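Predict structure. Input: Xylose transport system permease protein XylH, 393 residues.
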Amino acid sequence: MTGTSSLKDLLTRNLRQSGIYIAFVFIIALFAILTDGVLLSPGNITNIVLQYSYILILAIGMVIVIIGGHIDLSVGSVAALTGAISAVLVIQQGMPWWVGMLAAIATGLLVGAWQGFWVAYVGIPAFIVTLAGMLIFRGLTLQVLGNISLSPFPQEYQQIASGFLNGLLGGQGFDAFTLIIAAIAVVGYAVNSYRTRRRQIEYKQPVESMPLFVAKLLVVAAIVMAFAYQLSRSRGLPIVLILLAFLILTYSAVTKRSVFGRHVYAIGGNLSAAQLSGVKVKKVNFWIFVNMGFLASVAGIVYSSRSNGAQPAAGGLFELDAIAAAFIGGAAVTGGVGTVVGAMVGGLIMGVMSNGMQLMGIDQSIQAVVRGLVLLLAVAFDVYNKRRASGAR
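Output follows.
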């Protein structure tokens, strides 16, 4: 059936994703009130971007792993190992900062290939392989660092996670360059959304009515520009935000429009059907973990840059934060469902909650309880939706 859908129909058809966005807005509003507006202050918004960027990078790779029906428990240890290798080369041996980056990325790719081999070609469940990897790579981190911390990195390396682009176009009390980049992003989003809507109509898929479509674009534009304005009033456009935006756009396109992305969804949704359809399951699974290793190395570089050094205990619980971001953002426990954008929203929900509770002075133990309950409720909601859908059929 073609035509447009009402708001009620749209929310009913896509309750889970709509619910995530509504929950995100509600959580921001709640903590903005509870912190007397400090949460949305220019400096704090900048800090949220800097503090949680590496978790969001990990969440991009983790949601692809989960869509494929797997899990990766080793990403925190891999991030620690890649940061340690970079620190040894740059800080201890005095090599250029970019050599440390390349070595970290190469290490991440090798780790991903190692784990992908055991999962894809030997057939060991990813849970076991990455659990072993968590121990192996944590031990290697201790070996590489000699059980000591290394710091500081040169200024160029620190700029990866702590640098800003500002003052390029001036501005009275704000950075004009940041606002222009945000405006370009909004226009690009609007054009892409309009093209997607036209394709859906051509394929006789239901879409929201034009007024609802325009309203959605206006809301997104308002949020993005307000966010950019607050950044522009602080220190300008964070370099790590540009990196994160590039990764989000790239992997959104990969998951939605590439053959690899469709195969990942097929494997996670129905492995037997994917095999019968000619999908090269082993090859796809192998590259899922190579990609996760790559993104873990990028997160390791960002984290070591942010902390201006490498520590033996770095990356602790990063894997749990990344997994939580993917599940809260709409990924299904059984695989085959999830989006990169959803994982980003899930990660931001966790980040805003943590930051808000820190501003309120809530004890770390209570923060852990709240975050655990949010994850449990998100997965319970997914299970409830599946049961309701099965009952309807």
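Strands lie at 4-5, 164-165, 207-208, 237-238.
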